[in-house]
Amino acid sequence: MVILFIHQNFPAQFRHIAEWLGANTEHQVFGLGDVKNIPKGYSPKGVTVLGYATPKGAGDNTHHYLKAHEEHIRRGQQVVRAAQSLQKKGIRPDVIVTHSGWGEALFLKPIFPNAKHIQYCEFYYRAENSDVDFDPEFPANPESPFRVLCRNSTQLLSLTQADSAISPTHWQKSLYPSEFHSKIEVLHEGVNTQRMQPDDHANFSWQGITYTKQDKILTYVARNLEPYRGFHSFMRSLPSIQARHPDATIFVVGGDDVSYGSRLANGENFREHYIRELGNRVDWQNVHFTGKLPYGQYRSVLQISSAHIYLTYPFVLSWSLVEAMSVGCTLITSDTAPLQEVIEDNVNGLMVNFFDIEQIANTVSGVLDAPEQYRHLGQAARNKAVAEFDLETITLPKWVNYLLSNRQHS
């Protein structure tokens, strides 16, 4: 059996399943991604990793509603060329798993008509009751509803050709048009809960000082520090938190790029912007911006955390949230989807209004006042992570069964 995974940022969500199949089965496993995004030297056992040429962007005269669509078509063309190269070598996949968001699946069905085509459905954009209109500080453009319709066109064209599809959470599945729901199975990629587990003896060294779980530590993690992950609400809560806990050490993990949404017009990154906004109302000596950390250090930061903040627009659930659950962090999260699917207030976390700065500050301060009284929430969060998201016992077996039972018969 030949299995092909396609993702412009390969391995991305397909890392665990592709590597497991390559290492533990006799199936031929291929991974295809944008050559500039594949990690240097990435060559797991049993997986043939291939890159396609990075496509050009949209033309200068392309209508702005269609820029993303044109970029996706160009990417789909590059994938076709790579697929035709495989075809010439006599390689014909039985199963093809493709992220639906960037056009990579658009033209594969005619190339491999007998394959089982599976789409990974991560996020379907909506103009109302969604990330687009969620935050009044960053209001949607009046033309956003029209642009969003066009942005979804790639996914819709791909889904009409798909034999089946996967979405990581029930809420993310619910965003897709109801007529496609029967095609979509909820299947998270999982986290390694054995690797990400509590450790009362963990330590993290930063700027010559070693911190442990005995210290008063507040943590915030995002791939990039930006409003989509509530960075502005978090930052604005710091003056009140520090007023009650001037001895707290605050670690902020994440980069200065923008993963989602728009950049600031003046060229500042959001970290610089909110540092300037808050000025001397925050004791910056106790706030440490670590940037992106190696995985082991990132894990240690979570393991020593006394309270961990995770805020998000109604958007894709972050891996870091599930990993923080797995580590047993005491979680303060926004009461937004898809968090409502994994966090129950006062059961395995504490939920706050995304925009209520004082509620965020008061909730965090309450945990920092008496962290031992809230440890049971972290244990309950870990129990849920192990029961529903554990890679080895839950999600990986489901992925293997799903893929190997979904071979298309010509």
From TrEMBL:
CDD domains: GT4_ExpC-like. Signal peptide: none annotated. The lineage of its organism: Bacteria, Pseudomonadati, Pseudomonadota, Gammaproteobacteria, Oceanospirillales. It comes from Marinomonas ostreistagni. Residues 27-195, 213-383 form the Glycosyl transferase family domain. InterPro entries: Glyco_trans_1 (IPR001296), Glyco_trans_4 (IPR022623). The keyword Transferase applies. Keywords: Transferase. This is Glycosyltransferase family 4 protein. Transmembrane segments: none annotated.
